[in-house]
Design a protein that fits this description.
By secondary structure, this protein is mostly beta strands.
Length: 920
């Protein structure tokens, strides 16, 4: 009965999606007589070059909603009054831009007063933490990706693996959207498609108590709006190239061999009207191609066919075949293409249609230190993503509009060394549903014994990585929502959505040895080392929200409903988890060991309030409950419950996982100090429950298995401080300063922590510990100097205290308390310098980008026994000393000193790029 009632409520209220977010803002204000102070009714307000407009009511009030983000020229006119025009009026998604106007009685016919509007430093309707960056700001920063933009924002930390964390949350707790549509990969919540910064009109980060319209996130929402074409043709093309310039040859092998085109980038945009349909159809197209050899290199001393020979009668009689050509090989190369396209159609004055197409494709390798002298053995990674979305927005009146969206989102990821082959020996491109039974493994795959070490603490010799990993997700989504300005004080949003996922996964390891599998063989699907599944989870969710705007108080209140259908089975008996266990007691009914997984649902209330304490000071506080299903890969891991103790302790997914939940509290102050100077200080606390974890379950004796469960918890608290000094015509200097103090704790650092503890023999923690990405102090700053229409120099500085690590007492083989040590502090400065020219109406810009300007060594990973990346005490122990002696006499055995020199433990050295752009 309760479920039926909830479903009725869902469809009655027409709720909205967790995968969709806001894409428009609002302009409102009051028009008064400058001489008398009385409101002026009937004033016409027109946004130049658009069909948007309104007229003031009897109280002189007006509001225009449904506005795409960007800068507008707003014209005010009324009979008997002087016309007034405001340029550079900026609209941001989910915010109300206030523009109050005074008009004087007309004394000169057709006179128009032009005023340049300024973006407010204090937002009166900000009820939770949100930062917005527009296209102009992005262009003036030394950044090339969305991730680089995000790391400049208060409360965001980049983990040791490059992943992002907002306010102490896991990297999987962030929702990414483009034009209001989710680009989250349901397998792991990463982005399905990458977007170039030259296509971004506005990027906003909601890190506080986000409104009820946002869902499927515990820590934050990153919402990107792409550019759209205008009434004039515009274009820009840029090209730049460079290399890493560092003097740290002893650490970064081959870094001194400078190649001016080691990295090359070409990007461009073009936009405008479609010929013959100028007033109805506009387009915007962008593209970016980047190729890089990276900064980590190896030497092809060996090939995959080489191996190590040991004399069984003399352990020091070792021979290593080395048939490589000795060439230098890039070991973290990459190539990425990203494109966007937007078609904007305005068939009628009240109707607007947007079709968006995003595509990205990348090929890359991860550096593998073990294969430094056999670089051809490392995996290749192939990924591409696609997003199609269609949006129809219809204004029913000047106060109400609805939006209908449909989307198709796809991501395809493959990881292998060699592709599979058909019967004729031709490579086969994997796709979901491909029957691998009739295919063949590449004959170049080598037996496991060939990939071995000639001695301890030295590199692997010969052999191959034999794994094949395939993952594809596709999502059909649909959504209908309505926004209505019911009165001057109430703007109500409500809607309904669905998303239907299709998940295809296959993972196996090629079998080859010297006895059973003489030829490389694909393992049988029935075995535990071949995992294959297709799953089709369904999501329904929604919200109703009221934004109440009063003169001295703004309230955002909302209620959200989420409903999830796993469409899978789960194990009902923890002591007999698999019907495929051949050792099941005869009295166990196998048909009752699995059951259909019930649906999950939750109602989440949220409220945010802001009110002024002075004419330029605003206090806000907010409170909210947030819901997110764990990444789907954890629900469906090994769904057939296959296991074999010969290949390790089995790990089972759990389709009956509950949603992870967060309760967030926040209070903050915005205060403008001067016309161009303001600060924002915010305190927050997050309590997170039912986080994903791995639990070991003992069946009997030594027989155990691992299972994903909801049992981890965490909390995060902190203080963020932001200072903004705006660049003005009188001052050519702009400054931003963002500082975060944070403490993030939990019982485990991530969902797989128990598994890692088990494999290393380390005890799991019973009391809260610092999370692996807990950065106590984070300081980001930008300083921009110059005239943006002539020249500009921007410096970006980052300073962060060390991330935690777990110390180890080497002699006793004992680990101390998890994450009780701290890695060294990280610091970095980036530079962008550019000079603009105009030649016969065409803009020309020459620019210089330098990342890590001072070539600072930043330690990303460290050795547990020293807390440093530069050395380990293992090197001085007996086993390492024995290897050192062997390396002095046996060709192919490299010294422990070289093996323990880990360039991948550090962030990238200094990178210099020089380029040029042409704009027309």
């Amino acid at each position: 009965m309760i479920k039926r009632l909830l479903l009725i409520l869902l469809f009655s209220f027409s709720f909205i999606a967790p995968i969709y977010s806001g894409t428009t803002g609002k302009l409102s204000g009051t028009v008064k007589d400058a001489d008398t102070g009385e409101p002026i009714p009937g004033v016409n307000i027109i946004l130049e070059g658009t069909t948007f407009g309104a007229a003031t009511d009897v109280d002189g009030y007006y509001s225009i909603n449904n506005l795409p983000p960007g800068s507008y020229t707003v014209n005010f006119s009324a009979i008997g009054f002087t016309r007034k025009s405001f340029t550079n009026v900026k609209i941001s998604v989910d915010f109300t831009t206030k523009l109050n106007v005074e008009l004087r009685t007309e004394t000169i016919e057709l006179q128009t007063i032009v005023v340049e509007a300024e973006t407010p430093l204090v937002r009166k309707d900000l009820t939770s933490s949100q930062v917005t960056v527009d296209a102009g700001q992005i262009a003036s920063l030394p950044v090339e990706s969305v991730n680089q933009l995000l790391t400049l924002q208060a409360g965001i930390v980049q983990g040791a693996g490059g992943e992002l964390h907002i306010r102490g949350g896991r990297s999987t707790e962030i929702q990414y959207t483009v034009n209001g549509v989710s680009i989250a990969n349901p397998f792991d919540n990463s982005r399905t498609v990458n977007i170039a910064t030259n296509a971004i009109q506005e990027l906003s980060v909601v890190s506080g108590t986000f409104n009820a319209e946002y869902g499927n996130a515990l820590s934050g929402v990153v919402n990107t709006i792409t550019k759209e074409g205008g009434s004039k043709y515009r274009g820009k093309i840029s090209a730049y190239a460079g290399d890493y310039l560092s003097t740290r040859d002893e650490l970064f092998f081959n870094i001194g061999d400078v190649n001016p085109i080691n990295k090359s980038v070409v990007e461009g945009t073009i936009s405008g009207p479609i010929p013959t349909l100028e007033s109805k159809v506009n387009f915007f197209i962008s593209g970016r191609l980047e190729q890089s050899k990276g900064y980590l290199y190896g030497i092809r001393e060996q090939t995959i066919y080489d191996s190590v020979y040991r004399n069984p009668l003399n352990p020091n009689d070792i021979k290593i075949s080395r048939t490589g050509n000795g060439s230098v090989v890039p070991m973290n190369p990459s190539r990425e293409l990203s494109t966007t396209g937007k078609l904007t159609i305005k068939p009628f004055k009240a109707v607007k249609i947007n079709y968006d197409l995003l595509f990205s494709k990348s090929n890359y390798k991860f550096y593998s230190h073990d294969y430094k002298y056999n670089p051809d053995a490392a995996y290749n990674n192939y990924e591409w993503g696609l997003l199609n979305s269609l949006e129809i927005r219809h204004a029913l009146s000047d106060k109400t509009f609805y939006t209908l969206r449909g989307s198709y989102n796809l991501n395809d990821f493959k990881q292998f060394l060699f592709p599979l082959l058909d019967g004729g020996g031709n490579p086969v491109d994997y796709y979901p549903g491909l029957q691998v039974d009739g295919l063949h493994a590449n004959s170049n795959y080598q037996p496991d014994y060939k990939s071995s070490r000639a001695a301890n603490y030295t590199f692997l010799s010969g052999g191959t990585n034999n794994g094949h990993y395939y993952q594809r997700s596709s999502t059909w989504g649909g959504k209908f929502d309505v926004v209505s300005q019911l009165s001057k004080n109430h703007e109500v949003k409500l809607g309904l959505m669905f998303e239907n996922h299709s998940l295809d996964f296959e993972n196996f390891t090629i079998l080859r040895d010297s006895t059973t599998y003489i030829k490389p063989t694909i393992p049988e699907l029935s075995t535990a080392n071949h995992d294959l599944y297709s799953k089709y989870p369904l999501v329904l969710a929604g919200y109703i929200q009221d934004k109440m705007e009063f003169e001295s108080l703004i309230i955002n209140v909302g209620l959200r409903y989420d409903y999830f259908i796993p469409n899978s089975v789960y194990s009902t008996d923890i002591f007999n988890p698999s019907p495929n266990n051949p050792d099941l007691p005869p009295y166990i009914d196998k048909t009752k060991l699995l059951a259909e997984t019930p649906a999950k649902h939750q109602i989440s209330p949220r409220i945010g309030v802001s009110f002024p304490i002075t004419d330029q000071g605003i206090i806000h506080f907010s409170y909210g409950h947030f819901f997110q299903m764990p990444p789907f890969r954890n629900l469906y891991t090994n769904p057939d419950f296959k296991y074999s103790y010969a290949i390790g302790t089995p790990l089972f997914g759990n389709a009956n996982l509950n949603p992870e939940k967060t309760v967030t509290y926040e209070i903050g102050l915005q205060q403008q100090l001067l016309e161009d100077l303001a600060f924002n200080i915010t305190g927050y606390y997050k309590d997170v429950r039912d986080l994903l974890a791995i639990q070991q379950i003992r069946i009997s004796g030594n027989e155990t298995y691992l299972k994903y469960v909801n049992k981890d918890y965490a909390n995060s608290k902190g203080l963020t401080f932001s200072l903004t000094k705006r660049r003005t015509p009188e001052s050519m200097i702009g400054v931003t300063l963002d500082y975060t103090f944070a403490v993030s704790e939990g019982n485990e650092t991530d969902a797989d922590a128990f598994f890692l503890d088990l494999s290393s023999g380390r005890q799991s923690e019973k009391i809260p510990v610092f999370l692996g990405w807990d950065q106590t102090h984070t300081l980001n700053s930008t300083v921009s100097i110059g005239n943006l229409n002539d020249w500009n120099v921007t410096l970006v500085g980052r300073l962060g205290s060390g991330l935690p690590y777990t110390p180890q007492i080497l002699d006793q083989q004992v680990f101390l308390r998890t994450n009780s040590g701290r890695r060294p502090t990280q610091a970095r400065v980036d530079l962008l310098a550019e000079k603009q020219f105009t030649i016969q109406g065409i803009g020309l810009t020459i620019f210089l980008k330098i990342y890590n300007l001072f070539d600072t060594l930043n330690e990303r990973l460290v050795y547990n026994d020293t807390g440093r990346a530069s050395y380990t005490l293992v090197q001085g122990q007996g086993t390492a000393e024995e290897t050192q002696k062997l390396s002095d006499t046996i060709p192919g055995i490299h010294s422990p000193g070289e093996y323990f020199t880990r360039p991948d433990f550090y962030l990238a050295p200094r990178e210099v790029n020089i380029g040029m752009s042409i704009e027309f």
